[in-house]
Write a structure and sequence with these properties.
heterodimer, A: alpha+beta, Alpha-Beta Plaits, 3 domains, three-stranded antiparallel β-sheet, 25% helix, B: mainly alpha, two-stranded antiparallel ribbon, 2% strand
């Protein structure tokens, strides 16, 4: 009898030890983080670039108008990424409607952030000749007029072609907002500085695609390296295309290209 | 002999020169204090600004940040036609959900008519600006009438939002309905 009692109490002890041990181990497992969130690199080789500038790649952005469905995923992702204050848009989607008499109607309710739920009611549906969506964002000009006019050196162009804003230096004089031919700049009411799309520079430097490119469900936004002959952007820009940049006459030489752009788009 | 107009008193000139020199020294001093030390190293800007921009928080963590913890949804989502739709488009950025590997908040879930609005962002046939051959378009409420369901039905009552045709296919298989595509 005694032996059995001893055996049972031994078992109990072992059982309680195991339960306690398991609980402690389990709670530790919950408390100690399993390591930083690991997001795989989407642009190969970006983590090796540790200098101030990207040296091996020359990035280009292509928007394919023939694919865009105007869902506004890009606008949502952009607002989430930067907490853009309401009423301001770093990227937005415009709807163009061209009728048979070549009248052009453009609208962009809430920058396309809520998508397009209703058709334009002021245009007779039967007279529409052409209608499409045009996503807009920073054109990342090779010769940016916004940089040229900034009096305090707050807007600058890096050697790898990105036009960025130094929030610490910007005095919000809005000169750049006026100078930009593509109207992509605004004064951020929260930071009280100029703000605009950066092609998600912080993501690109960490090897991630820009947020809008990442979420586009129909691949209407493409981002890639022009030094890589196998990349999609290289292939598109090295084949015949009609018009590919907005307002070429302004001489800003944008790095943002459009596929399927119509003459009416400004 | 020409009269000498030049005054032998020049203190006023010296005063002006002194004031100018003092002004120059003061303004150079102020400039040195205001302009960052390495300003102009790469161009007319502060080189540290590049690092500041790089250090911005990544809030959209891509699908890869969601899938490790949601394997069942992963399997379902990527087996359906909605596989190109990003998680964070409908659910919100991962930064609002996870911080330092801890769940900080639940992402809001779309409910009822919100889901219908969300679906119609892409699938509303009445919006003609979309390319003709892209995704499937649905005319509302004609679709509901055709399917003989109540007009206040929301999309997710028949379609799984992650894999829209999953339940439809399962139902057809159960009922023994041969799909039209297979017939041809």
């Amino acid at each position: 009898m005694k032996d059995i009692q001893a055996e049972i109490s031994k078992d109990r002890r072992a059982f309680i030890k195991k339960v306690l041990g398991g609980t402690i181990a389990g709670s530790l497992f919950l408390v100690i983080p399993a390591g930083a969130m690991d997001i795989p690199e989407q642009i190969a080789g970006m983590l090796e670039e540790d200098g101030p500038f990207i040296t091996k790649k020359k990035f280009a952005f292509i928007v394919d108008i023939t694919r865009c469905i105007g869902c506004g995923s890009c606008c949502v992702a952009d607002k989430n990424e930067y907490n853009v204050p309401d009423g301001n848009y770093r990227t937005w989607v415009e709807r163009y409607v061209i009728d048979v008499d070549d009248n052009v109607y453009v609208d962009s309710p809430n920058g396309g952030l809520d998508g397009y739920q209703v058709p334009r009611e002021d245009v007779v549906q039967d007279t529409i000749r052409d209608t499409f969506f045009v996503p807009k964002l920073c054109n990342m000009c090779e010769k940016p007029s916004c940089v040229q006019v900034c009096p305090v050196g707050a807007t600058y162009q890096t050697d790898d072609g990105f036009v960025l804003i130094d929030e610490k230096r910007c005095v919000a004089c809005s000169y750049c907002v006026q100078a930009c031919p593509y109207s992509v700049r605004f004064i951020n009411p929260v930071t009280k500085t100029a703000d605009k799309c950066t092609w998600c520079y912080h993501r690109v430097r960490k090897g991630l695609l820009p947020a809008c490119v990442e979420v586009c469900p129909v691949k209407a936004r493409l981002f890639g390296d022009l030094n890589d002959r196998e990349s999609e952007v290289y292939k598109i820009l090295h084949q015949p295309h009609v018009i590919s940049v907005l307002k070429p006459g302004m001489g800003n030489k944008p790095s943002l290209h459009y596929v399927g752009l119509r003459r009416e788009v400004v | 002999m020409e009269p000498n107009y030049r005054s032998k008193y020049n203190t006023h000139v010296i005063r002006i020169v002194i004031i100018l020199v003092v002004l120059a020294v003061v303004s150079l001093g102020v400039r040195a204090m205001i302009v960052p030390k390495d300003f102009g190293k790469y161009g007319h800007y502060r080189p540290g600004a590049i690092q500041d921009e790089m250090d911005r928080e990544i809030r959209n963590g891509t699908n890869a940040s969601c899938l490790p913890c949601h394997p069942y949804i992963k399997e379902m989502h990527f087996s359906g036609v909605h596989k190109t739709v990003s998680c964070e488009f409908c659910h919100g950025p991962v930064a609002d959900h996870i911080k330092d590997d801890q769940v900080i908040a639940k992402l809001p879930k779309k409910q009822g008519q919100e889901i219908k609005t969300l679906c119609l962002r892409c699938h509303n046939q009445i919006i003609r600006a979309r390319p003709k051959e892209s995704i499937k378009m649905v005319a509302m409420p004609k679709h509901l009438e055709d399917k003989k369901v109540r007009l206040d039905h929301t999309c997710d009552q028949c379609h799984n939002v992650h894999a829209p045709l999953m339940w439809v296919k399962q139902a057809k298989a159960m009922m023994g309905v041969v799909e039209e595509e297979n017939k041809q």
